[in-house]
Amino acid sequence: MNRNHAIDAYRGLVMFLMMAEVLHLAKVAQAYPDCTFWAILAYHQTHVEWVGCSLHDLIQPSFSFLVGVALPFSVAARIAKGESEGKMFLHALWRGFLLAALGIFLRSTHSTQTNFTFEDTLTQIGMGYPFLYLLGWRPPRWAYIALGVLLFGYWLAWTLYPVPDHWAKNNNAGHFFDVWFLNLFPRVKPFEANRGGYLTLSFIPTLGTMILGLIAGRWLREDPPRIPYRHFLTAGIACIAGGLLLHFTGLCPIVKRIWTPAWTLFSGGICFLLLAAFCWVIETKGYRKWAFPLIVIGTNSIAAYLIAHLFDAFIYSSLRIHFGEHFFAFLGGGLEPFLLGAAVLLAYWLILYWMYNRKLFLKI
User: Fold this and answer.
1) What whole-number distance in Å separates Cα of residue 273 and Cα of residue 148?
2) pLDDT per residue over 80-107, tens digit each?
3) Does the N-terminal or the C-terminal CB of the chain have fewer CB atoms within 10 Å?
4) CA–CA separation, 267 vs 192, rounded Å?
5) β-bridge mates for residue 51, sequence order
6) By C-alpha distance, which of 231, 234, 204, 203 is closest to 218?
7) DSSP 287
8) Whole-angstrom Cα distance, residue 348 to residue 304?
9) Is the omega angle on the peptide bond into residue 225 within 30 degrees of 0, that is, cis?
10) Model pLDDT, residue 3
11) What is the pLDDT of residues 278-337, one digit of tens each?
12) Which of 147, 164, 151, 267 has its CA nearest to residue 215?
């Protein structure tokens, strides 16, 4: 089937939101405390403290979901090239290892030694990817069974763990696992707690998010170019309702930082609806020109991730050297972080545009 530009655009939006952290909207909101506009933007560029959801909280689940969506297409392309199932599984293992290693590398760039941490986006996806690949070769019902067993088993393990509040920050089953597990690695000082409450074991429910994406990707490939909107909308509403039900009945709160089963369902449901929206606008209605800047980013998502993590300091310093220390304060000091960040964001995009024009796509 022809390439689905809606997937690229959705992935591009996700990576754009991640790269747009350089806009420092929270600093602008602090400079204009009475302005609701900047307050709303700042809220949606930060993670919620614990329970709830902002737009920024949807970046990681969307990225994980789209990994699952892409898997059926990737497998089909490799089969068309004549690759064996065994060779493809070895590639899946290698890809999972590289993603996890790349995540650790990026988290170690400002450390005095390797910072063995496994809660970032790439590492979480890397640890779950081989399992996702195996499900990609099994009949569709296996994905539904695996999702149910995974989420229920994870919920049960946490609720049986002997702590007063099973979903409290740094006082839960996942936290105590990390106190043991992360201290098996060489560290500058013993691990005691993750400041944000993030956990290694979150890769298990993250795998659940990727399974939801796998289900969506299979639906997309069933009868191309038809888009299964009814399936997407039904799954999206059902998942959101399931997550809210778990949350409001007190069985399991919606917490992104520890990726609760309720969060897996709630955020996964939103991902279904976003995918449906992108498909309707771009594939069905044919409105593609507006999405070109996002497609440039989305077709090179790994490169975008690396640029945002490795090039920011270089671009910041280069702009200050060549334009002056406070050149971007011409609209006032309050907007200086935003305008400087916008220049950095534009530099990110121009690098990706240069790569896009030369068909340089970084893949793992």
Assistant:
1) 21
2) 888 888 899 999 999 999 999 999 999 9
3) N
4) 29
5) 255
6) 231
7) -
8) 8
9) yes
10) 78
11) 999 999 999 999 999 999 999 999 999 999 999 999 999 999 999 998 999 999 999 999
12) 147
CA–CA distance, 154 with 152 (Å, rounded to integer): 5
State the residue for tokens 């939006």: 13
Q: Is 346 exposed, middle or buried (0-12, 13-18, 19+ CB in 10 A)?
A: exposed
Q: How many helices (H) and strands (E) does the chain have?
A: 15, 0
Q: What are 313's two structure tokens? A: 């300091």
Q: Do 213 and 66 touch, CB atoms closer than 8 A? A: yes
Question: Reduced to 3 states, what is the DSSP secondary structure of residue 166?
Answer: coil
Taking the whole predicted model, whether its pTM rises above 0.85 is answered as yes
Assigned token pair, 359 = 């068909």
**pLDDT at 1 > cutoff 60:** no
> 247 and 260 in contact (C-beta within 8 Å)?
no
**What residue has token string 């994905």?**
143
Contact 221, 72 (CB under 8 A): yes
Give the H or E element holding residue 66. helix 59-80
pLDDT tier at 2, thresholds 50, 70, 90:
low
Torsional sign, CA 67, 73, 74, 75: positive
Whole-angstrom distance, CA of residue 257 vs CA of residue 193:
13
